[in-house]
Amino acid sequence: MNLKVSKALPKGPTTTLVPLVKDEALERTLYQLAETWGIPGKVLTADFQAKAGQHHLVYDRAYGRHHLIGLGAEARLPQVATITKNWIFRHRDQLPAHPVVQLWPGAAKDDPSLIRERLEGLVQGALQGRYDIGLYKTASGETPPFRSAKASLSFWGAGVDAKLLRPALRKAEAIGQAQLEILDLVNGPGNKVIPQTLADWAKASGKAYGYKVTVFNKSQCLKKGLHALLAVNRGSEYDPAFIIMEYRPAKAGRKKLPVVGLAGKGVTFDTGGLSIKGATNMHYMKSDMGGAAAVLGTLEACARLQLPVHLYAIVPTTDNCVDANSVKPGDVIDSYSGKSIEIIDTDAEGRLILADALCYLHRNFQPEILIDLATLTGSTVRTLGYHAGGLFTANDQLAQLLSEAGQEVGERLWRLPLWQEYFADMESDVADIRNFSGKPLAGAITAAKFLEFFTEDHPAWAHLDIAGVAFGQSGLSSQKSATGYGIRLLIQFLEKWLRQKRR
User: Fold this and answer.
1) Residue 18 phi/psi, 5° resolution?
2) Does one domain contain both 295 and 441?
3) Tag placement on the chain: N or C end, fewer CB within 10 Å?
4) How far apart are CA 313 and CA 218, in angstroms?
5) CB of 87 closer than 8 Å to CB of 69
6) pLDDT at residue 11 is higher than 90
7) Domain total of the chain
């Protein structure tokens, strides 16, 4: 879909989307709109109060259609994005190919940062609202106009400087498009999205947006000593991949930039291995690469936005299946770090492949900040539900920046402890560490303590357990599906951190 800023409203009958905030200026705004459309102002003020998600359709004298959409009183980026996504999703098949978003009268007098924030929410919500989860449906039919490849969405506001809108539009489009792509990856079934799929996606994205991608195949993983990844892969029909991405802005030259490392769990399907999961919800385990998808999407968004940061990212990817060669409970395996691991539960596999990725990132690229994302534990879901991801870090400043970024974009995090006492549950009699405590408590924390062991005391490492927020009631499907969580959070965090470093 083409996104653009319009200098004026089109002449003749037009379909406009008019998002409105529930504030003290609402009544005056409604009277201004009513006068423009040639209808009594009292009609609008009586029928529309701009409550969050409220919709009111108005026809003007020229037979134009105007959809008033309530943004509620808060109307910050998270709320605007969600309201817009839900509204577009419900009405996308009835909209014409080229509607116009008419920013509220008086927007030119608003805080410019607030205008940009709301515009980003509108764009990201509109893009997600067009999403079609029917990736493999064979039924064909005529594509509704607004869902066609030639569709466009224009933005116009009386008196609003286009120079203010275009940067916000560019940022929102970069993030929104990356979100759409990772929705396809996470929603793709395990026989369609395999480790090679993620590797191919990264290569194509790197070629398109100018960042480096290196992929280790199975034999190269063996040569590099990525033994924990290979152990999880032993039961699979598909070879693993160890995807390494490096982004530097094109204009940076030899300038030294701050270095950040990202790692994302890329288990394309998780049966649990020999410690097999129950059948009831196993079909949702195609989503166990939500962390990898967020990292892939963040790399692409960073490259599109040309953020001034040197970014390394690793996605270790395999599925976790059952076979005669599968790793067994009680086995002891090696890892890239040289440390040995006792396998207690083969369903605690995500932390194994991340152990190799984190240690590889730390030793080879020495990032100033190291962050991993993973749909790691059901314990986090039981603790926080579907409204926040778990945040684990010993670095207070890092915790604050990540928490603030998540709150600002609506991808919230809640910090949980990493006290050393929890590590006692991960001690093994026969190896350097075991992969599961064996206790029905503090599962998310002990998983984080396992990962911390392989960061080799990195001073600014954070683990984000996104099991409850990467996949769920997204509003884009009748069953659970991908939410796109992680990209907005990481981009917001990077921007905040870079601004802080420039002070």
Assistant:
1) -120, 95
2) yes
3) C
4) 19
5) yes
6) no
7) 2
pLDDT interval class at 113 (50, 70, 90): confident
pLDDT of residue 105: 61
Longest dimension (CA), the chain: 81
Q: Which candidate, 310, 268, 307, places its Cα nearest to that of 287?
A: 268
Q: What is the pLDDT averaged over residues 386-397?
A: 98
Residue 106: band (very low, low, confident or very high) from pLDDT cuts 50, 70, 90 = low
Known catalytic membership, residue 351? yes
Please state, in angstroms and rounded to a whole number, the distance separating the CA atoms of residues 17 and 19.
6
Tell me, yes or no, whether 289 and 347 share the same domain: yes
Amino acid 248 reads R
Q: Of these residues, 171, 265, 351, 449, which one is catalytic?
A: 351
446 within domain boundaries = yes
Q: Do 145 and 195 belong to one domain?
A: no
The DSSP secondary-structure symbol of 73 reads T
* SS3 state at 255: coil
Spot the catalytic one: 22, 65, 224, 277. Answer: 277
Query: What is the C-alpha to C-alpha distance for residues 478 and 221, in angstroms, rounded to an integer?
Result: 40
For position 172, what pLDDT does the model report? 95
Q: In terms of DSSP bridges, do strands 152-156 and 2-5 run parallel, antiparallel, or are they unpaired?
A: parallel
**Which has the minimum average pLDDT: 95-109, 429-443, 470-484?**
95-109
pLDDT at 86 over 70: yes
The vertex-476 CA angle with 141 and 243, nearest 5°, equals 100
Helix (H, G, I), strand (E, B) or coil at 319: strand
**Six-digit token string for 110:** 């608003």
Same domain? For 310 and 340 the reply is yes
Reference 144, options 181, 90, 80, 69; nearest CA is 90
Q: Which amino acid is at 464?
A: L
At which residue do the structure tokens 């945040």 appear? 391
Asked if residues 13 and 62 have their Cβ atoms less than 8 Å apart, the reply is yes
Is residue 86 domain-shared with residue 196, that is, in the same domain? no
Active site residue 137: no
- Cα–Cα distance measured from residue 44 to residue 390, given in angstroms and rounded to the nearest whole number: 44
Provide the residue range defining the domain that includes 102: 2-158
Phi then psi dihedrals of residue 23, to 5 deg: -140, -175
Cα separation of 180 and 130, whole Å?
9
Same domain, 128 and 204: no
Q: How far apart are CA 462 and CA 452, in angstroms?
A: 9
Residues 402 and 491 in one domain: yes
Alpha-carbon gap, residue 43 to 58, rounded angstroms: 10
The 3-state DSSP class for residue 335 equals coil
CA distance 333 to 344: 11
Q: Which pLDDT score, from 0 to 100, does residue 161 have?
A: 76
Cβ 307 vs Cβ 257: under 8 Å: no
Mean pLDDT of 362-382: 98
Indicate whether 169 belongs to any domain.
no
